[in-house]
Design a protein that fits this description.
alpha+beta, about 20% strand, Immunoglobulin-like, Peptidase M14 domain-containing protein, about 625 residues, 13 helices, five-stranded antiparallel beta sheet, Aminopeptidase
């Protein structure tokens, strides 16, 4: 049997009309009339059993059960062609065996067409999941759809299909791109003679392998034991891509210290036939580990033989990857042990994995020793392998996950599933660093690089670089502002440059208070508050509490007594700064020089002098 199959959308239906046929077919030419839908599932991973036309635009669809096992009916994948433009129909899938599934929580079927090969989910408002009294109270999945293009072939599926041929094509492409990254071999053959592929990542140095004292650490990954759980294949693809990257430091460190054995498809026959859970003879392989047979379960027997070979010294993990049809998010199933230390060690990996995945759901994680699951890989390997092996079941939802703390459901895509595989590899890195198997890098390597990524070509730098002188290390100190001459007052006169004259007490020769001559001080304090209200200090009013009252003699006409020095705190008035006066009314084009010219400044000085004389006369 040739395992290769063409794209279902490129498949030509036997009922497809020829272009020269008209829409008025009389029914005797063997061609279907345009608008009479033609269903097809005769391709790899396809599944559809029967279609009944129950109304003018309504169809009842019956799923084909798994081969040799009528119990399982959930996976569907089929194409529709020979449609009319803008034709609207209703599809009812009436014989699903699982009443509890994610269609109640918002999952919808996928659709794509010939000209739009990317999978898209149907709008939730067009999908209904309910009990139908017409169909013996069975749950029915109904969805409405409108065909917008006439010459298109439309494909509908439960979730993203991943066929056996797609896996072979992907492994061939990766092998050509990274020929030295991994080793590809055939572990065994299925009942229908399809290959059981084994991918090995092993860059551990040979001297370390030859030394019996050195323990070789090994991780075994199993996937796709149930054919209908196709998201598991995307998780494995993301893991393989991450480990195969040659320039990735994480994958390089993992390959040099840990051996990875990946079996991407445990049930190739069931995948090819489009089954939901069983192989070609109707056995659920994830309930058959405890009753292996070389004839009915050849793939499981080959895996068990490999695990027994490496079990004594090197196997650390066995992880079985599945897709869950009734729960959201990503979570892990584990086992319970009587040995407390083994159980605590068993909890480390799920906790590390939860920190790496934003879609990890703690509520759905479970650890048990259920006897009903004794035939699963997770429970069987606990008894069959040594105590050093940690066995888990990694579950990913077929639908999506809820963001932390919200009710927003985010639907998974192909890349979303592959991201889980990459996060799985990062968790292995953290685990082996935590257990001191991998060296912890320096702090500088752990810090993220600042700046934007170098997505463009940098400019060429000159080879001759000027010497950069090292700036001398000096202590930073603020410039002190000294207020030693606090005994000051203001005279009504102004200095030659237009600013008020500042005098200091205690200078002889000035006819001021106490017969002391006041010496003008040119220095101004530019940091004082008077810079903001300089105009208010052009003439101080001493009629308030700051006014120096001169005591008079008896009779009012006697000579005045020599006044005492006023307290310093009474005269602590900030000086008026020196300002250059600019007439902004003259600031026209080219008028800045005219505004700052000497004539304008002299004119403003004269205004200030007149205003000062008027104020002095009013006070007198």
């Amino acid at each position: 049997m040739n395992p290769d199959a063409c794209d279902p959308l490129a498949h030509t239906s036997m009922y497809q009309r020829a272009e020269e046929d008209s829409d008025d077919s009389d029914g005797h030419s063997g061609k279907a009339k345009r608008g009479h839908l033609c269903f097809d599932a005769a391709f790899e991973t396809g599944n559809l059993g029967r279609v009944d036309l129950v109304g003018e635009f309504e169809y009842d669809l019956f799923l084909r059960p798994d081969t040799c096992n009528p119990r399982y009916r959930f996976w569907f994948n089929f194409t529709v062609d020979n449609v009319k433009q803008d034709q609207r129909v209703i599809f009812n899938i009436v014989n699903m065996n699982k009443s509890r599934n994610l269609f109640k929580d918002g999952m919808t079927p996928l659709v794509k067409s010939t000209s739009r090969p990317k999978w898209q989910r149907l709008p939730r408002c067009e999908v209904f999941y309910y009990k139908s009294p017409v169909h013996q109270n069975h749950y029915v999945l109904s969805f409405a759809f409108g065909f917008d293009k006439e010459d298109e072939v439309y494909q509908f599926a439960l979730t993203f299909p991943y066929s056996y041929s797609k896996m072979q094509a992907y492994l061939n492409a990766v092998e050509l791109k990274f020929p030295e990254a991994f080793e590809r071999s055939t572990l065994g053959m299925s009942i229908q003679n399809r290959k059981l592929e084994l991918i090995t990542f092993d860059d551990v140095k040979k001297p370390d392998k030859m030394d019996p004292k050195n323990v070789i650490h090994m991780v075994v990954i199993l996937a796709r034991i149930h054919p209908g759980e196709s998201p598991a294949s995307y998780v494995v693809q993301g893991l393989i891509e991450f480990l195969a990257a040659a320039n990735q430091p994480i994958s390089k460190a993992l390959r040099e210290h840990v051996v990875f054995k990946i079996i991407p498809m445990l049930n190739p026959d069931g995948v090819f036939l489009g089954n939901n859970r069983c192989n070609v003879i109707g056995h659920d392989l994830n309930r058959s580990w405890n009753k292996l047979s070389q004839y009915t379960h050849p793939t499981l027997s080959a895996v068990m033989k490999m695990l027994k070979e490496y079990d004594n010294s090197s196997v650390d993990f066995v992880i079985d990857i599945h897709a869950h049809s009734s729960l959201t998010g990503t979570f892990i199933y584990g086992s319970t042990y009587d040995n407390v230390y083994r159980y605590e060690r068993h909890l480390v990996f799920p906790k590390l994995f939860a920190t790496k995945c934003e879609d990890f759901c703690q509520e759905h994680m479970m650890f048990n020793a259920d006897d009903r699951k004794s035939g699963t890989a997770r429970r069987y390997f606990v008894e069959a392998l040594s105590d050093n092996v940690n066995t888990y079941t990694l579950e990913v939802s077929m639908c999506g996950y809820f963001l932390n703390g919200t009710n927003i459901l985010t639907q998974y895509t192909e890349d979303g599933y592959m991201r889980i595989g990459r996060n799985l590899a990062r968790t292995f890195l953290e685990y082996y660093r935590f257990t001191n198997i991998l060296p912890i890098p320096p702090v500088d390597e752990l810090r993220p690089r600042k700046g934007r990524p170098r997505t463009h070509r940098p400019r060429a730098r000159s080879k001759t670089r000027s010497e950069v002188r090292v700036r001398p290390k000096t202590t930073r100190a603020y410039a002190p502002i000294s207020y030693t001459d606090l005994s000051i007052c203001y005279d009504s006169a102004t200095s030659e440059d237009g600013s008020p004259v500042r005098y200091m007490y205690g200078q002889p020769g000035h006819a001021g208070y106490g017969g002391f001559r006041m010496r003008p001080l040119i220095h101004q304090d530019q940091f004082s508050l008077s810079n903001i209200q300089a105009a208010r200090f052009s003439n101080l009013d001493f009629s308030s509490d700051f006014r120096l009252k001169m005591p008079k003699g008896k009779g009012g006409g006697g000579p005045a007594q020599e006044p005492k020095m006023p307290p310093i705190e009474m005269l602590n008035v900030p000086p008026k700064p020196h300002l250059t006066i600019i007439d902004f009314n003259q600031l026209t084009r080219g008028g800045l020089e005219e505004a700052t010219s000497g004539k304008t400044i002299e004119r403003e000085k004269e205004k200030i002098r007149r205003h000062t004389v008027k104020s002095s006369s009013r006070k007198a």
